[in-house]
Amino acid sequence: MRRRRLLAILLVVLTVCGLSSCSWRSASKIMPWGGSRPKVALVLSGGAARGFAHVGVIRVLERQKIPIDIIVGADTGSLVGAVYADRRSASDLERIVLALEERDVFDYNFINPTHGLARGDRLEEFVAKRLSTQEIERLQTPFAAVAADLESGQAVALKSGSIARAVRASNALPGIFAPVSYQGKLLADGCVADNMPVDAARKMGADVVIGVDLSDGNPAVQPNNIFETLVQSVFLMARQAAEGNSKRADIVIRPKLASAGFMDFTRKKELVALGMAAAEEALPGLRAKIGIK
Fold it and tell me: Which of 89, 93, 215, 274 is deepest in the core (most CB within 10 A)?
């Protein structure tokens, strides 16, 4: 009897020690989503020509093997996000996006500008010609382009249908581009309703949201003409709402872009470098949030 009692006590001690050791080893890895890796979303804000900075952010995330399971973008963020969701290659993304020129975006129509100074056909064509697939559902990574419903005033996450048309709608800046009639709605630039669409990423199943904010909280350079004034005015208004949404992201990367104009297509490589610098700075906190070394 005594021998059995001793064996029982020894078994309990060994079991407790084993559990304690296991718990100690794994304590640093305990996350709200359990033992499996969290689903990570990359949310790319709008910023017109400042969007080239997104390329630098993605280059760093890919190089550091930060997982990206969902991509959501508004305005230029939708363009960059769509290309990366299709290619899953930062080098391909850089090659395609850095080929974008102002003439590929702004097809001005001064003869009969009933709804906008530009149509948006060229941007849609640019996107369509450079993707390996034309439907959002066929992209390698789940993707949504966020646009604004001009009738309801609500943000609309376009998660199906034509990629090129969704990107065009998400970039249809009011006053510059004509709104886009698509999926039964009249749509304009996503920055108008939600320039940091964190909620859309959460609804797509994201556990961790990485937001990339191109406003950087500082005034941009002084606009030089009516087009720059219109574009900058829209983004200044969008920044107020985006600041609140940014707080719902887990990590926010803010490239320092104060000297970069929203219509300046001459500083692409510099913007890519600024995006890389901001992403490198955010890496320690990002790894800790995801639970990877």
Answer: 215
Residue with tokens 């999926």: 183
pTM: 0.84
161, amino acid identity: G
Q: How far is CA 197 from CA 78, 85, 150, 264, 283, in A?
A: 11, 17, 17, 24, 21
Q: In the chain, where do the E strands start and end?
A: 40-44, 70-74, 116-118, 143-149, 155-158, 175-177, 180-182, 185-189, 208-212, 251-253
CB distance 145 to 166 below 8 Å: yes
Conformational region of residue 175, where left means phi above 0, alpha means psi within -120 to 50, and beta covers everything else: left
Residue with token string 């249908």:
161
Q: What is the CA radius of gyration of the chain?
A: 23
Q: Do 172 and 179 contact (CB within 8 A), yes or no?
A: yes
> Taking each helix axis from N to C terminus, what angle separates 76-87 and 90-97, rounded to the nearest 10 degrees?
140
pLDDT in tens, 122-136: 999 999 999 999 999
pLDDT in tens, 36-75: 889 999 999 999 899 999 999 999 999 999 999 999 999 9
